[in-house]
Specification:
395 residues; alpha/beta; OB fold (Dihydrolipoamide Acetyltransferase, E2P); Rossmann fold; 5-stranded mixed beta barrel; 5-stranded parallel sheet; 10 helices; 13 strands; 23% strand
Length: 395
């Protein structure tokens, strides 16, 4: 007899439902744990030989014990997820059995490095307020690098970003991280700080950032290190050793550079304060000199020569402060001119255009479009809509 795929899965599902697998306890280590907005929990239960997918629906008992690397006892029943044909354990009760192997190794290394002073707040360095060159140690192919570029180009486009392509997962990752941090230490190419980053993942995925040798490389870095590993809830040894820990890679980009618009406002405020201080000081000097003249005129009948010298001093002082004020004005205008040259409007005036796709998303890569896509084109004067009918890809 020939069965369809659906018939086979249905028969297996019925067979498992009638077997001893409908009321069972399973011991294993949690990995790949996620809990989306639905409130249900999805994870993998594994031992040293194999693994099985698990689901635990919202409001089941013991869901708070779920975390990557934790060893648990799970009660439930086996079933087959009919859409994919996957065997899975539907858990209804979870009890802690102790910490998993990786979690235990993490805590052991954390205690050791803590005792050696690796996490001391007193040794951690402040980040430069206006960095000019930042090294990013991450994978060139992931979303992390693009996110960091986007945030920094928006906040402070004057900074230079240097990507050090790095393996961030697997058994080669730790050595790749160490080599790039060592390159920064030896190169002495005026790098102001380092961002060490990768996206989220399971405890196993992030394990290279719990490597003791990586911790030593971060500890010995000649420049401040910002660690941005995984999501906000992910804590690694690298996070604890780094000078600054950011909850996400995008947050790291926000932390390391100022907002150029805020900086422009600050310069304007400082310029105005400097002008007021200068005028007040000049006024006070003139008033003091006038008072001195009055006092001397009362006791010395002939004071013409001294008055002339005092007048000359006033003129020199006035010229000096006016010169200083002019210098500050010119410096402020120079900064404002640089900011203006980076504005989108100025770019359009030079003959460039802004191309936007759906949802007003900026198109910067030919891979973002395909034949038939509708694009919005913004020029210096006016806008128009275009339909893609041909794509020329360059190698």
């Amino acid at each position: 007899m020939i069965y369809s795929v659906s018939q086979i899965i249905e028969k297996l599902k019925k067979h498992i439902a009638q077997d001893d697998f409908i009321d069972i306890w399973v011991k294993g280590e949690v990995s790949n744990f996620v809990r989306p907005l639905s409130g249900h929990s999805y994870f993998t239960l594994k031992d040293d030989k194999t693994s099985i997918r698990c689901v635990m629906f919202k409001n089941s008992l013991g869901a708070e014990y779920l975390a990557d690397g934790v060893l648990i006892l799970t009660h439930g029943k086996f079933s087959i997820y009919q859409t994919r044909g996957d065997l899975q354990l539907v858990a209804d009760i979870i009890q802690p059995e102790g910490e998993g192997t990786l979690r235990a190794e993490f805590e052991k290394l954390k205690l050791k490095l803590s005792n050696e002073g690796f996490f001391e707040v007193s040794r951690k360095r402040a980040l430069p307020s206006l960095p000019s060159k930042i090294a990013v140690v991450t994978s060139p192919s992931g979303a992390v690098w693009k996110d960091i570029q986007n945030v920094i180009s928006r906040r402070f486009p004057l900074v230079e970003l240097i990507l050090l392509p790095t393996i961030v997962q697997g058994h080669l990752a730790a050595q790749s991280i160490i080599e790039n941090l060592e390159y920064i230490r030896k190169a002495q190419n005026n790098i102001d700080l380092v961002i060490l980053a990768r996206g989220g993942g399971s405890l196993e995925d992030l394990w290279p950032f719990n490597d003791e040798s990586v911790a030593h490389s971060i500890f010995s870095s000649p420049v401040p290190v910002v660690s941005a590993i995984g999501h906000e809830t992910d804590i690694t040894i690298s996070d604890l050793v780094a000078d600054v820990r950011a909850p996400t890679p995008s947050a790291a980009a926000e932390i390391v550079v100022p907002n150029i618009l805020d900086l422009n406002d600050y310069i304007s405020i400082i310029t105005e304060k400097l002008q007021n201080i200068t005028f007040d000081y000049l006024g006070a000097c003139n008033e003091n000199i006038n008072n001195i003249n009055l006092r001397y005129n009362r006791v010395i009948p002939d004071f013409d020569s001294l008055k002339i010298r005092l007048g000359e001093s006033i003129n020199l002082l006035d010229t000096f402060f006016k010169h200083k004020l002019q210098m500050y004005y010119e410096k402020s205008n120079s900064i404002k001119s640089k900011l203006h040259s980076l504005s989108p409007d100025n770019t359009l005036k030079r003959g460039y255009a802004i191309i936007q796709g759906s949802e007003k998303k900026i198109i910067s890569d030919i891979k973002q479009i395909s034949i038939g896509h509708q694009l919005e084109i913004t020029l210096k004067k006016g806008e128009f809509t275009a339909i893609v009918n041909k794509i020329n890809k360059k190698d």
